[in-house]
Amino acid sequence: MTPGTLLAVAHGTLLQGWGSLAAATGPTPSPSPSTLEIPPEDQTSPGLLGFLVTFAAAAAVIFLAFSLVRHLRVVDRNARRLQAERDGAASGDAPAGGAAGDGAPTADGDPGGTTPPGRR
């Protein structure tokens, strides 16, 4: 038996069981008429809660986008610094600001690589 056939059989069995359960409970009476008037579908809105949820989701997306850009800038800056160090080491010259962590200021103003990335 293939997985698709097995799924169809299981689904059919589930539907048959649900149908027999629904038939056993019998129909329920409809609710009594009320004076509450329900507006048409085209005149309803999600209300304040819907606005707040949408606003919170939009604010979270904007915050995450700014955070992503900040982290990508740090990664790009570190990649450029490492590439400059590799190029300097390959040509035999010292890097532009001294070796990282030696206390000499680097080209971007970082005092010898003592500042952790992203903490400027």
List keywords for this structure.
single chain; 120 residues; mainly alpha; 2 helices; elongated; membrane; transmembrane
Discrete helix count = 2
- In percent, how helical is the residue content? 55-70%
Indicate the structural class: mainly alpha
Tell me the total number of β-strands. 0
Q: Residue ranges: pLDDT <50 for 5 or more in a row?
A: none
Largest sheet: none
Average pLDDT taken over every residue: 75
| Distance, first to last CA | 63 Å
Beta-strand content: under 5%
- Principal-axis shape equals elongated
Radius of gyration: 33 Å
| SSE string, helices as H and strands as E | HH
Give structural notes.
By secondary structure, the chain is mostly helical. It has a domain of 61 residues. The chain is built from 2 helices and no strands.
Question: How do the helices and strands line up, and which of them pair or pack?
Answer:
Blueprint: H1 3-25, H2 47-91
Transmembrane segments: 47-69
Biased composition (Low complexity): 89-109
Region (Disordered): 20-42, 84-120
Would you kindly provide a brief summary of this structure?
By secondary structure, this protein is an all-alpha fold. The protein is 57% helix and 0% strand.
